[in-house]
UniProtKB/TrEMBL annotation:
Acts as an activator of serum response factor (SRF)-dependent transcription possibly by inducing nuclear translocation of MKL1 or MKL2 and through a mechanism requiring Rho-actin signaling. Residues 110-186 form the Costars domain. One of its GO terms (biological process) is positive regulation of Rho protein signal transduction. The keyword Cytoplasm applies. One of its GO terms (molecular function) is actin binding. InterPro entries: Abra, Costars_dom, Costars_sf. This is Actin-binding Rho-activating protein. It comes from the Eukaryota. Binds F-actin and ABLIM1, ABLIM2 and ABLIM3. Interaction with ABLIM2 and ABLIM3 enhances activity. The keyword Disulfide bond does not apply. Keywords: Actin-binding, Activator, Cytoplasm, Cytoskeleton, Phosphoprotein, Protein transport, Transcription, Transcription regulation, Translocation, Transport. The lineage of its organism: Eukaryota, Metazoa, Chordata, Craniata, Vertebrata.
């Protein structure tokens, strides 16, 4: 009988081991299932959290922008004065990069450069080069020819002089009064 009891004990122990291993298997399967469910839930909430974070970032940026906007009720004069650019600072007198204003400024600058090139071409085509290679034309002749193309003759001449492409005497040119002023093409 002692042997039977040992066999029964072994059987009971074996059954207990199977049950505990099954329990471990079930608990590990359950924990794995829970972990997968958490991962799936996290993946589902990922874009939502990302959207929420981006919205919060935008809201924070908007609050700061409103504190700097003099037309806003939340305008903070001290903050605006402390962050203001001064002459000589990088970016002073220029729009912020990436804004629509900066885009418009680039397009306007390209347009002005085209106008300057056109004017230089017209000056070059109007007069014969002198012996020293310089091309000169009077303001009256240029005005009569170029005014058919653009009404911004003087403005374009001033800008071309600023860029070192033409030269003439005086600060300003007036039609009629300055018709005999010589404009020299330098390019």
């Amino acid at each position: 009988m002692v042997t039977a009891n040992r066999e029964e004990i072994r059987t009971v122990q074996f059954n207990d081991e199977i049950q505990s291993s099954n329990a471990l298997f079930v608990s590990s399967s359950a924990s794995r299932f829970r972990e997968e469910a958490r991962t799936r839930a996290h993946r589902k909430q990922g874009p939502v959290n990302s959207l929420k974070d981006r919205w919060q970032e935008w809201a924070d940026q908007h609050i700061i922008t409103q504190k700097l906007n003099p037309f806003s009720e939340e305008f903070d004069h001290e903050l605006a004065m402390s962050t203001r650019l001064h002459k000589g600072d990088e970016g002073y007198g220029r729009p912020k990069e990436g804004t629509k204003t900066a885009e418009r400024a680039k397009r306007a600058e390209a347009h002005i450069h085209r106008e300057i090139r056109d004017m230089c071409f017209i000056i070059e085509s109007m007069a014969k080069p002198r012996r020293d290679g310089k091309i000169q034309v009077t303001f009256g002749e240029l005005f009569d020819r170029y005014v058919r193309i653009s009404d911004k003759v003087v403005g374009i001449l001033m800008r071309a002089r600023k860029h070192g492409l033409v030269d003439f005497e005086g600060e300003m040119l007036w039609q009629g009064r300055d018709d005999n002023v010589v404009i020299t093409l330098l390019k």
